[in-house]
Specification:
Layout (H helix, E strand, L loop, with lengths): L10 H17 L7 E7 L1 E5 L2 E5 L10 H4 L1 E2 H5 L10 E7 L23 E5 L8 E3 L7 H12 L6 H19 L6 E3 L6
Parallel strand pairs: 1-5, 5-6
Antiparallel strand pairs: 2-3, 3-4, 7-8
């Protein structure tokens, strides 16, 4: 595996990492055995039905949040090879609520993934992604995804992995009662 990790990346570092990923993916053989994975855990939003990932230091309350963000469709998903066979997986552990009151109803469209690519979201369209108030803990989605990955049989499909994760998150949220004192909405750190 060739792994690149970026923590608390600003827009420049985000786009550089995506460019590196795109370049690396383009050099892999077109044999159907290559898998590319992008995992993003942070802050996100939707605007006019499109998903945006917020780099470090950019909040949804920033009037220029959209311009400072990374477009999931135009930048992240475009970095995957637009071919099949092969597999691309984008895991987006971020909010998907709107930046204006009219967009917070959940009436957003789906993200169309490139051929041979799966996009797994921690939150449904129009929803927030909740995490423990302890910043040293993984988000609920990531915690359950890791648990599923450690427990599954090697013969399970990727779509089943993400479905099992979704079901486990729903079960955890019901068991915890979604108490506001335990959960917090993903928010950037104050500058």
């Amino acid at each position: 595996f060739d792994v690149q990790v970026e923590n608390d990346a600003d827009r420049t570092r985000c786009t550089e990492a995506i460019g590196h990923f795109r370049k690396r993916m383009s050099t892999l053989p077109d044999d159907g055995r290559s898998i590319g994975v992008i995992y993003f855990c942070g802050h996100g939003m939707q605007y006019e039905g499109r998903n945006y990932l917020l780099p470090s230091g950019v909040g949804t309350d920033d009037p220029k949040a959209k311009e400072k963000s990374v477009s999931l469709q135009d930048e992240v998903l475009a970095a995957f090879p637009q071919r099949y066979p092969g597999l691309g997986v984008a895991v987006i552990d971020a909010c998907r609520d709107g930046i204006s009151e009219g967009e917070k109803t959940g009436a957003f469209n789906y993200s169309t993934a490139p051929q041979g690519c799966i996009v797994a979201f921690s939150a449904s369209a129009g929803q927030v992604s909740l995490s423990p108030s302890d910043r040293n803990q993984n988000s609920f989605y990531t915690r359950e995804l890791v648990q599923v990955l450690t427990e599954v049989d090697q013969e399970i499909s990727f779509t089943d992995i993400f479905e099992f994760t979704r079901l486990r998150v729903a079960q955890t949220m019901r068991a915890q009662g979604r108490a506001d004192r335990i959960y917090q909405r993903h928010r950037p750190e104050p500058a």
